[in-house]
Design goal:
This protein is α/β, with parallel strands linked by helices and 153 residues long. The chain has a four-stranded parallel beta sheet with strand order 7-4-3-8, sandwiched between helices. A two-stranded antiparallel ribbon has the order 1-2. A hairpin with a 3-residue loop joins β5 and β6. The longest helix has 23 residues. The protein starts with a helix and ends with a helix.
């Protein structure tokens, strides 16, 4: 029976904290529910695409995806479809060549076509230079080493 008493106290404290949080953030909640909350975006829409498929659309940011595996390729596709100028880096020259020529990651994402607007490179300097955002999509064991290589460019 003693445990039940503590349980009631915990529910009371949790309810109090929830009410306090709602009260503290009531203006933000109203904006979110009404759809007037500021949208978060990266960079400014400054570059106009000269590609026939997206003529006249403004790009939101120059983004580099470091890592061309299944996760990096999927992120690159998502970023490109959202209007970003995307460059994908891989340390394997043959992988870059395959992605550039076949426009498909045959071994990791078979059947998923990669648009011509996504650029692939094996040069880390080219991948990170003059980019608004750099996304690390490499296996966790390689994150530190890859980040160091890209910073020193």
């Amino acid at each position: 029976m003693e445990n039940v008493a503590y349980l009631h106290e915990m529910y009371g404290i949790a309810a109090f904290l929830m009410i306090l949080a709602f009260w503290r953030h009531r203006a933000n909640i109203k904006r979110l529910l009404s759809g007037t909350e500021n949208k978060i975006s990266v960079g400014e829409k400054i570059k106009i695409v000269r590609d026939d498929k997206k003529k006249g659309q403004a790009l939101m940011a120059k983004v580099s995806v470091i890592g061309a595996g299944s996760w990096g390729t999927a992120l690159a596709l998502l970023l490109y479809k959202n209007g970003h100028d995307v460059t994908v880096w891989s340390y394997q020259e043959e992988e870059v060549r395959m992605l550039s020529e076949k426009r498909e990651h045959v071994s990791k994402l078979p059947g998923v076509k990669i648009p011509e607007g996504i650029f692939f490179t094996a040069d880390i300097k080219e991948a990170v230079e003059e980019k608004d955002v750099v996304v690390l999509a490499v296996p966790s064991i390689h994150v530190r080493n890859t980040a160091k290589r890209s910073i020193h460019m």
